[in-house]
Structure to design on (158 residues):
């Protein structure tokens, strides 16, 4: 993992009211704002953020296995949803928020604890005034794809 958050919690809404989405994400990377609590439950974290592009890094572990012995697809889906939504957040202005209204994920191959570290790379496709879309991929360190998807987010004033 690239970053180690100093704290875990919900980012105060005031941060989003007074700074752009990208500034908020960069402050999270710097440890000035908390990492979201879900990163205490699922092993992934924000590792890169620029306008229209975000990367999360994670590691599929044995604790995430489904009854068939593969990492549950919810791990990859949550990793992608987080990255794709943050790609949208990265283009929000101060005083704006967003929420996912639809996510579509295709699983290409099974994640296993032996897969090792993975990255969810997400890019903004369209940053409309009310609806924004992003796409993302989960890749291992060799660049093999495990899942890909798209997400639609609703933008709204805070």
């Amino acid at each position: 993992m690239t970053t180690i958050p100093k704290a875990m919690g919900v980012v105060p809404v005031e941060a989003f009211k007074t700074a752009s989405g990208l500034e908020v994400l960069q402050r999270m990377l710097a440890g000035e704002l908390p990492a979201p609590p879900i990163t205490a439950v699922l092993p992934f974290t924000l590792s890169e953020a620029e306008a229209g592009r975000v990367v999360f890094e994670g590691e599929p572990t044995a604790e995430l296995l489904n009854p068939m012995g593969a990492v549950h697809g919810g791990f990859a889906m949550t990793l992608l949803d987080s990255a794709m939504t943050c790609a949208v957040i990265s283009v929000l202005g101060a005083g704006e928020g967003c929420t996912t209204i639809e996510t579509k994920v295709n699983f290409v191959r099974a994640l296993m604890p032996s897969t090792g570290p993975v990255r969810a790379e997400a890019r903004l496709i369209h940053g409309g005034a009310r609806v924004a879309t992003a796409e993302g991929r989960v890749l291992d360190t060799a660049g093999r794809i495990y899942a890909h998807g798209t997400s639609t987010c609703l933008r709204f004033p805070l």
In short: Confidence is low (pLDDT under 50) at residues 1-5. The radius of gyration is 15 Å. Helices lie at 13-18, 21-29, 38-41, 73-89.
